[in-house]
Amino acid sequence: MSIPPPNFVEREFKEPLLCGPGPCNLGPSVREALTKPVFSPLCEQFFSALDDIRAGIKYVFQTKSNLVLAISGSGHSGMETVITNLVGPKETLLIATRGIWDERAYDIAKRLGIKTIVYRVPYNTTFTLEELERQVELYRPTAMFITHGDSSTGTVQNLEGLGDICHKYGTLLLVDTVVSLGGVPFFMDAWGVDAVYTSTQKALSGPAGISPVAFSARAEQKIKNRKHETSFYFDINLLAQQWNCYGNTRSYHHTMSPPLVWALRECLRQLSIETLEKSWERHAKTSRYFYERLQRLPIEFLVPNPEHRLTTVATLVLPNGYNYNDVVKYLREKHNIIIFPGLGPTAGKSLRIGIMGVNSTVAVADALADALADALQTLVKSSL
Ligand SMILES: *Cc1c(COP(=O)(O)O)cnc(C)c1O
């Protein structure tokens, strides 16, 4: 044989405290769920797990819609699914842009031959509903894409009333809740959201690779009447049959990953036991506590308006003279804590610190604040 087998050396890892904008550490019961047995994808045990997941998704998105299921893939697969199923080539997508995820939506839409309109605000702010209405009224696009919580900038967008505005002009509202769901209030039906997706590895404390999506009745109509073809893997009509969204249509589309199905079911079960209200309250309390601890350090917020700050991901500005990558490296090497530097518009301008899911506790906030204080002291000393 010309290619010999490679030698796989043992690799030992000490699990870090994951406090970046994602992934988050796994919840203990989620870790256990990952080791549950593999069932046939066409047996009762598996079907009942899918039914549980659909009920859980309706709860966490707060929707009565039947077209809810999970896509096999990370958060991006949810993004691609909502865009490709609802907006055809030559139709128009308005992208409200303030961070990297909106840029991704732009990239996906471009590749699908969709006409895109980008409406931008400075990355450390959010949109007013008035300015969004002006854009929707002007272009009357097929759909508008907007990010609820933006993990690249640390902002949270007010969405209450935006659905009504969109519907007035025949526009569908598509929302990314990957880093906000479970950490920040979200109400799909009450806010008139037509398509939404999230993912497991942020505030749900699960493994990446499976992404809940939901479509409103209005979006369902659009999917039924659409003229365009979508990708096979993300075709919501076929997936709705696999997930039995309308009853008696269990059918094979692709093999889902049983460990991920069990893990998602457990994430949703845990959030249902805690309840959304309690989870939102816990996240708000932890982040308030973390901000209080930061007041003793020479650290500023990248987002000036406290109302625009995202509870799950903080973007922090260090005093002049500090290198963001050095601080990230120091926390990893000295404290085994993972935080991230800026990304996209915030690259070289901030740290991104995520306190979410199982990590949304006073103990984690303390560990982070202590580690940051140590980094600021030590790194300054070494540069003197
Ligand atoms: C992390 C993140 C994504 C991308 O999720 P992947 O699982 O990495 O594909 C999308 N949107 C937001 C807001 C995110 O924070």
UniProtKB/TrEMBL annotation:
Q: What is the main EC category here?
A: transferase
Q: Which cofactor does it need?
A: pyridoxal 5'-phosphate
Per UniProt, the keywords (alphabetical) are: Aminotransferase, Pyridoxal phosphate, Pyruvate, Transferase
- Per the record, what are the reactions this protein catalyses? glyoxylate + L-alanine = glycine + pyruvate
Q: Which domain of life is it from?
A: Eukaryota
Is NADP included in the keywords of this UniProt record? no
Membership in a protein family: Belongs to the class-V pyridoxal-phosphate-dependent aminotransferase family.
- Can you say what this protein is called? Alanine--glyoxylate aminotransferase
